[in-house]
């Protein structure tokens, strides 16, 4: 066999997957392009490597199909057609109706629908409105595909007839050139396929690696954290989004099973109802460095500062969160597990379950974690164990049912409906949207107090645009202060204790760091720990509560400067409730004389906060010593100069 024949065979082999599945390859390529183009969100962009990566994906599938006999190949293609068209139609339908493509939350909601809801969905899918929406393009492609299959033989005959007519109509020279062109076409096509294949492998390799990493996560939290990385996988096709959604739900289902088992194992020996009304306010994205209470230069917390001056509110000075990602914080804050315990957070009971079993009426009012179709994986990861029907019943007696643009909507929910369910012993949890990005949407514009010009003297190094963002964040913090104050007002005349804790800190152009929000994937150094993990934390006691529980009030005042990490919060709550249970660990209760203040405060399972702080303080002390030494040297130098002049 000559080298020309070897090359010819190699090129023929390179193009074989496409030639043997030509109709499948072309139609699925068009489907991939159309489904990507019609699901681009507002202000979004098309995945830059979509065309090449789509070629690579379809080439690999076609190569696998080409291995099988012709009859088997046809059957496999038919199955793939059904799967890919149905997935693309569902993905587009979700985008049109819910503003989001397929995601884990949508799949979870589908799993919770009954037969009547499912039939309603299917009837909606084939309605006139849907047919004339973007979904219609997918259905049109599917129809064309079916017609091509039905009339395949006729189309081939028409094609042959047209080619024959064109050949006969051509000039003699063109007729003579046709055999040469026909002979060269397989080789040319093979070269083209090989060139595109090599290019697509080079450009798509990183995304394939990232996708493998994403789909290798052992827990839903690990998967979520992978998605915070800068170069995370791009799920550019509906089938990838479906596969990821199924995988995420499988991971969540595993943890739900563990949580349900732990919930049924909860034991309560007794409950004294030490605190009849316990209120927990969970804030969002609140760095204490923007709190007037903690020394910030803007008056962002006038109400809380006033409560602190009255001594009813006790501010804690050394509190950190264990994660800078809401979903992780919620898991650790609601679970009675603390960092360092054996097993995982889902192996331990959630504290609302313990409260319910002890006889407390538990109300959960959230402005973030409600089951909804348009939900990012971060919200799914943080809310799946709250929204699972069985776990929700085990944890809460009452919940709100809708989200609000602003947090004052939660106050209305409480006043209009949830307040009426109060009993003699209540645990009420408010989960605010707080200062979550986008900051300018987190407060009423009519209540704005800070403007970009307000920071010209305080932060001259920032641009006007940056100062504007900073003003939005501080206005959101001021609005949050008003919401917290309103919650306090609703309980100030009762025998109540209120705890305020945000999920994590937030950066908003701190020092010269030049960014907002949080740096999820970075290694934790001191500055990141300082700005993203240090949080405000306080306990408010009503006048009636102080009178009836002076010992607890004194314990709170005495504990205000102790070290604490928020994963231990459930044990403080169990103590305040007077719940005797094997789940309660006294060494994790900051008010207990047996509290283990020296427990390592490990951030993101990787960095010891106190070691980072100690190292930073040592470095600062050394730098200060050097400055003092330089000053002394200068003074001595000046004295010697003066002596020399006198001589």
TrEMBL record:
Bilayer topology annotation: Multi-pass membrane protein
Bias (Basic residues): 632-647
Coarse class of the protein's main subcellular location: membrane
Keyword Transferase: yes
Disordered: annotated span: 618-647
Pfam families per UniProt: Sulfatase
A GO biological-process term: lipopolysaccharide core region biosynthetic process
Domain (Sulfatase N-terminal): residue spans on this chain: 276-554
Name of the protein described by the UniProt record: Lipid A phosphoethanolamine transferase
């Amino acid at each position: 066999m000559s080298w020309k024949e070897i090359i010819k065979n190699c090129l023929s082999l390179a193009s074989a997957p496409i030639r043997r599945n030509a109709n499948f390859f072309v139609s699925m390529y068009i489907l991939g392009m159309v489904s990507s183009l019609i699901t681009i969100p507002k202000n979004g962009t098309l995945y830059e490597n979509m065309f090449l990566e789509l070629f690579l994906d379809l080439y690999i599938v076609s190569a696998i199909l080409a291995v099988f006999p012709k009859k088997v190949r046809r059957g496999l293609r038919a199955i793939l057609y059904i799967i890919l068209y149905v997935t693309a139609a569902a993905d587009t339908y979700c985008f049109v109706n819910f503003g989001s493509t397929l995601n884990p939350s949508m799949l979870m909601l589908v799993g919770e629908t009954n037969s009547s809801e499912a039939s309603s969905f299917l009837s909606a899918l084939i309605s006139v409105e849907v047919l004339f929406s973007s979904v219609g393009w997918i259905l049109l492609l599917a129809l064309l595909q079916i017609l091509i299959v039905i009339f395949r033989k006729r189309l081939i005959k028409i094609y042959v007839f047209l080619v024959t007519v064109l050949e006969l109509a051509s000039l003699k020279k063109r007729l003579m050139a046709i055999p040469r062109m026909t002979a060269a076409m397989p080789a040319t096509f093979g070269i083209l396929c090989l060139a595109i294949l090599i290019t697509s492998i080079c450009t798509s390799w990183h995304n394939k690696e990232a996708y493998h990493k994403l789909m290798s996560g052992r827990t839903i939290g690990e998967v979520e954290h992978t998605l915070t990385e800068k170069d995370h996988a791009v799920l550019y096709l509906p089938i990838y989004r479906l596969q990821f959604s199924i995988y995420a739900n499988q991971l969540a289902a595993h943890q739900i099973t563990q949580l349900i088992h732990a919930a049924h194992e909860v034991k309560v020996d007794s409950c004294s109802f030490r605190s009849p009304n316990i209120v927990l306010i969970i804030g969002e994205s609140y760095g204490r460095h923007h709190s007037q209470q903690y020394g910030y230069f803007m008056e962002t917390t006038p109400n809380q500062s006033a409560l602190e001056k009255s001594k009813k509110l006790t501010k804690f000075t050394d509190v950190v969160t264990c994660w800078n990602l809401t979903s992780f914080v919620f898991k650790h804050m609601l679970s009675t597990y603390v960092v360092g315990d054996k097993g995982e957070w889902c192996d331990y009971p959630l504290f609302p379950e313990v409260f319910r079993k002890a006889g407390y009426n538990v109300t959960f009012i959230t402005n973030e974690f409600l089951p909804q179709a348009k939900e990012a994986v971060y919200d799914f990861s943080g809310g799946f164990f709250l929204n699972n029907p069985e776990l929700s019943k085990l944890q809460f007696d009452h919940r709100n049912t809708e989200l609000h643009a602003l947090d004052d909507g939660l106050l209305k929910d409480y006043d209009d409906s949830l307040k009426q369910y109060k009993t003699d012993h209540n645990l009420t949890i408010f989960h605010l949207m707080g200062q979550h990005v986008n900051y300018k949407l987190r407060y009423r514009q009519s209540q704005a107090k800070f403007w970009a010009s307000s920071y010209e003297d305080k932060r001259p190094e920032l641009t006007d645009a940056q100062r504007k963002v900073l003003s939005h964040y501080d206005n959101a913090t001021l609005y949050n202060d008003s919401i917290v104050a309103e919650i306090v007002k609703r309980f100030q005349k009762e025998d109540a204790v209120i705890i305020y804790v945000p999920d994590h800190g937030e950066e908003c152009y701190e020092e010269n760091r030049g960014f907002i929000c949080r740096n999820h994937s970075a290694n934790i150094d001191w500055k990141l720990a300082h700005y993203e993990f240090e949080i405000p934390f306080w306990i408010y006691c009503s006048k009636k509560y102080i009178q009836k529980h002076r010992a607890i009030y004194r314990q709170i005042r005495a504990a205000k400067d102790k070290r604490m990490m928020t994963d231990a919060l459930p044990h403080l709550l169990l103590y305040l409730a007077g719940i005797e249970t094997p789940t309660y660990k006294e060494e994790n209760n900051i008010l207990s004389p047996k509290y283990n203040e020296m427990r390592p405060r490990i951030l993101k399972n990787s960095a010891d906060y106190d070691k980072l702080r100690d190292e930073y303080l040592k470095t600062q002390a050394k730098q200060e010593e050097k400055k003092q030494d330089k000053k002394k040297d200068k003074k001595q130098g000046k004295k010697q100069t003066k002596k020399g002049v006198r001589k």
